[in-house]
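Let's sit down with a protein and look at its sequence and fold side by side. We need material for that, and I hope you will provide a protein of your own picking. Once you have written the record down, we can walk along the chain together.

***
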Amino acid sequence: MANVRVADTADESLTIALDAIEEAAQKAAAIVCFPESFVPGYRIGKNNGSCDSAFLNHAWSAVDRAAGEANIAVILGTERMEGTELRITTRVTNRDGSLAGFQDKVQLDPSEEGVYCPGTERRVFRCGELTFGIVICHEGWRYPETVRWAVRHGAQIVFHPHTEIVENEQYLPSGFADTTNSFHEKAALCRAAENTCYFATVNNAMRGASTTSAIIAPDGTLLTYQPYGQQGVLVGEIDPAEATGFLANRLRTVTI
């Protein structure tokens, strides 16, 4: 989990991303995941300019090269144009530097609908023997069906890149899933436990953030989390055999 600071510019976001890829590889990670729309940056609350395709192509190529050189898969929070539609997306790079594909954000937050368009498809990805899915921010918090879909299609871990607009920079949670905090981190615990899968959520390092990066086990217990507001790459070890998807696959559908 690349729990990195928010960049001031698009160019800086790429520099931070490349440094984090190198750090994650040095820590022997197989996959590194970045926050939502990290490159070139999340547009809500910022200047909503046009998508710079030239910059994105340059950044994606640089990330692919870094992934291949470091032998690490990369889940990059970014954006892309699909026809005339601007979409929040994640771009997945294989460990050899080749493109695995995109997972667009399907369920937008209401605040995003004037800027972005929703995606239309879901998929899962492979990294060695590991199958993983991706749900982006709001859809993972508010729509548990998105996580269940991935697990029912074979995902042992679901990555959850998100970003937060901080309202109170003085706020500091006392710990993960603090009872006085918002529902969000409790929801992360539920996404793992209700599907018997690993759930890996990643936010930016920001002063006053109410959520942080964490990895949660298939029984809903917290494996590890990043101290709030602290920059760095959070690394955890998982056992894919523990992610059976048992509860997700017990879901019964009925016709009404």
